[in-house]
Write a structure and sequence with these properties.
Distance between the termini: 5 Å
Strand order of the largest sheet: 1-2
Number of helices: 16
Helix content: 55-70%
Order of helices and strands: EHHHHHHHHHHHHHHHHE
Strand content: under 5%
Structural class: mainly alpha
Length: 375
């Protein structure tokens, strides 16, 4: 990983809303979801139960807030492409060098994902090669390579539509040997067939993997849609208010399209169906428009609000770092050391809150030292 010692502050280099949104997304992964769930066990906070129900994945078909977390991260990774890769290209960095940087990032994330899955504990025996970080790396590689290697945005749009149609064709129209076409099923579906045929190692769900072959390719759609959103944000000829409207309107269109298709093409996160992509991309666009408008356009900076922004931004600037650290460092055990006896009185939520605090303290230390670990 690369140690970045100086954070860019140029307006066109970095939008605060992107870092804050990434941090908001990661907050739920590093304990925010668990905190809400345990808070509902306190009688006075039982009204939070409907929110807590959103803090878990649907069993198979359907959608909850928790199903948005990963796609939103993929989307944000695409938003950064114009601010990183294309800005470097404009500064004269050679295309082969940029392609190598994209490839290295993908390889590093694949390796980190395998480490996260426990290869150092279990060895290569029944190891699961598919991983969250691996999917981020490969999907980003696909999206970023398309953007880098093809200059025209029309060509980028062509690839976006092509991938959507490819996933749709494979999942809906192309028959699986022995089962036929159009089965959204853990055994008979195209996802299961391709994972069993092409994906080595342990499959998380037995017959297929939630982060398998088709899921990875499909996730690149979120990266590309994020790229178009990022390109819109970089357009100097458009007003900030108009950018906000375009983002929100595009999100509404994609959400409506997903809902219209849902009856015949179900929303299934485990398979990353096209409707799942459209729905999560639409919601992501709307959330980005809100964050962008409030943080970068209106620039609300009240004392409390600034504190909230700083809280999430600190997480967002070292998102991969805390994801790996949360796997390696026993934050919960450390929290129990400080909160154990009191938690027995007030509830387990205090242990979770303590663990989140310890994680944030680590990230804030890195922030103050201007250490940002990037893959």
């Amino acid at each position: 990983m690369k140690k970045v010692m100086k954070e860019s502050t140029k307006k066109n280099d970095r939008l605060m809303s992107i870092d804050v949104l990434r941090g908001f997304d990661m907050f739920w992964i590093i304990g925010g979801g668990a905190l809400i769930t345990y808070l509902t066990k306190v009688d006075a906070l039982s009204f939070l139960q409907p929110i807590a129900e959103q803090m878990s994945h649907v069993e198979f078909e359907g959608f909850r807030f928790w199903d948005l977390i990963f796609p939103l991260f993929m989307f944000i990774s695409g938003v950064t492409i114009p601010f990183s890769i294309l800005s470097k290209k404009a500064k004269g960095i050679a295309k082969p060098q940029l392609q190598w940087d994209i490839t290295k990032r993908a390889l590093k994330l694949i390796v980190l994902g395998i480490l996260y899955n426990g290869i150092l504990q279990r060895g290569f025996t029944d190891i699961r090669y598919a991983s969250v970080l691996g999917q981020i790396g490969i999907a980003y590689f696909i999206g970023a390579t398309i953007v880098l290697q093809f200059k025209s945005m029309k060509t980028h749009a062509f690839w976006l539509v092509f991938i959507l149609l490819l996933i749709t064709a494979l999942q809906v129209f192309i028959p699986v040997p022995g089962f036929g076409a159009g089965h959204f099923d853990p055994v008979m579906g195209m996802n299961a067939y391709l994972d069993q045929m092409l994906l080595p190692g342990h499959l998380a769900v037995g017959t297929y993997d939630r982060l398998g072959i088709l899921c990875i390719i499909s996730a690149s759609v979120l990266v590309l849609i994020g790229y178009f959103a990022g390109s819109l944000l970089r357009k100097r000829e458009l007003s900030e208010n108009l950018k906000t409207v375009y983002l929100a309107a595009s999100g509404i269109v994609l959400i409506v399209l997903a809902l219209l298709l849902w009856p015949v093409y179900p929303v299934i996160k485990n398979f990353w169906t096209t409707t799942f992509n459209l729905l999560t991309a639409g919601i992501s666009l709307m959330i980005l428009s809100l964050f962008y408008y409030v943080i970068d356009v209106k620039q609300f900076r009240g004392k409390v609000f600034s504190g909230v922004l700083h809280f999430f931004r600190v997480i967002g600037l070292n998102s991969i770092t805390i994801y790996m650290a949360d796997r390696i460092i026993p934050f919960t055990d450390m929290s129990k050391f400080f909160t154990g006896s009191l938690a027995e009185i007030v509830g387990t939520w205090l242990v979770i809150a303590g663990a989140i605090t310890l994680k944030w303290m680590l990230l804030n230390y890195l922030y103050k030292q201007k250490i940002f670990l990037k893959v």
